[in-house]
Amino acid sequence: MSYALARTLLFRLDPEEAHDLGVGAARWLAGRAERCRLVRNFIARPSVRPVELMGLTFPTRVGLAAGLDKNAEAPLAWWAFGFGFAELGTVTPRPQSGKPKPRMFRVPARQALINRMGFNNQGARRVAERLAEQKAAGLRPAMPLLLSVGKNATTPNDRAAEDYNLAATSLAPHADVLTINVSSPNTPGLRALQNPQELTAIVRAVLEPAAGKPVLVKVAPELEGDLLRSVLDACLSAGATGFIATNTLAKQPGEPREDGGLSGQPLRQISRARVAEIRKHVGDNIPLIGCGGINDAESARAMLDAGADLIQLYTALVYQGPFLAAALSRVGFIPPHRSR
Ligand SMILES: Cc1cc2nc3c(=O)[nH]c(=O)nc-3n(C[C@H](O)[C@H](O)[C@H](O)COP(=O)(O)O)c2cc1C
């Protein structure tokens, strides 16, 4: 099925309207298990090569990155499109509307997006209810679901750990893995939490409700060198299981573009370099998910070669359509080694 026609139409719309239309279509698909099975088996046809990681089985190494399905509206649709896991959220304890629109921008010449959504989401309680409803209705996919937690914009940083604890408490029963987002550039002050002391408190605040489930920390691409290493050490000492690298690239002062996080191709090299840096520091046995600018077999393979166990997609889905995940699972880029 060609995505080209759909893209022509979608790209005539405002990017967020196109996104909402896409998620709406996914929600429709996810409403029926039989429909999803047909799409997965006859259209997406991912090459299932299960990977064991964190005590879970991932049908493929290619996952959906956080931020596309912020309210967990369509997990079964992501499975139908051929993903091997999905990260849902980021979800904050209380609902919030995010930044004023417009807040999502396409940069087609660079196959990139800029966004300053600001954690618009329906809040942890509603998202938890929805996940419970999906499970009761037999609409939970047969793949791991990662749930990303964040803090509300109005919560001061010295009370951030409470927000992470609240969101994790609601969502942990419905998650296979919890992920801590301290790396969005769009919540003022959030990235200041990326230091050993604050992260120790936040990881501990999430570990308790996680009750033995894995907890990953997602880092910004700008975090490097000594500070990155001290953050990694602090997270692991506090009990974190592993890491996701990376979130989007913040705007530099004076850079002539919209405010917000840059994703897609311009992020590719830096995310890959960060994955390599993390792998070198933490050694072979810590789970690590690579994310940023992956849009073809070569970039997927390069991220795995840099040291990622699993990879995630977001921006490339906008340019190439949702079946990219299945296509990448089929191209045989995945080496059989490194099953943690
Ligand atoms: C519109 C948009 C919204 C996003 N929202 C979130 C979010 O809520 N939580 C999060 O951890 N990452 C979020 N991200 C970051 C992505 O998960 C991913 O880390 C980043 O886009 C790099 O991957 P990509 O180049 O494949 O898009 C968002 C990205 C975009 C483009």
From TrEMBL:
User: What PANTHER family does its record include?
Assistant: DIHYDROOROTATE DEHYDROGENASE (QUINONE), MITOCHONDRIAL, DIHYDROOROTATE DEHYDROGENASE (QUINONE), MITOCHONDRIAL-RELATED
User: What catalytic activity is recorded?
Assistant: (S)-dihydroorotate + a quinone = orotate + a quinol
Protein family according to the UniProt entry? Belongs to the dihydroorotate dehydrogenase family. Type 2 subfamily.
Q: What does this protein do?
A: Catalyzes the conversion of dihydroorotate to orotate with quinone as electron acceptor.
Q: CDD domains this protein is in? A: DHOD_2_like (cd04738)
Q: Which organism is it from?
A: Humisphaera borealis
Q: Which UniProt keywords apply?
A: Flavoprotein, FMN, Membrane, Oxidoreductase, Pyrimidine biosynthesis
Pathway(s) of this molecule? Pyrimidine metabolism; UMP biosynthesis via de novo pathway; orotate from (S)-dihydroorotate (quinone route): step 1/1
**Under what name is this protein listed?**
Dihydroorotate dehydrogenase (quinone)
Q: What is its main location?
A: membrane
NCBIfam families, sorted: PRK05286.2-5 (NF003652), pyrD_sub2 (TIGR01036)
Supply the EC number(s): 1.3.5.2
The Swiss-Prot or TrEMBL record annotates one GO molecular function as: dihydroorotate dehydrogenase (quinone) activity
In this chain the Dihydroorotate dehydrogenase catalytic domain maps to 51-327
The record's Gene Ontology biological-process terms are:
'de novo' pyrimidine nucleobase biosynthetic process; 'de novo' UMP biosynthetic process
Q: Name one GO cellular component term.
A: membrane
Q: Cite the Gene3D superfamilies for this sequence.
A: Aldolase class I (3.20.20.70)
* Cofactor (UniProt): FMN
| Compartment(s) of residence | Membrane
Signal sequence span is none
Under which main EC class is this enzyme filed? oxidoreductase
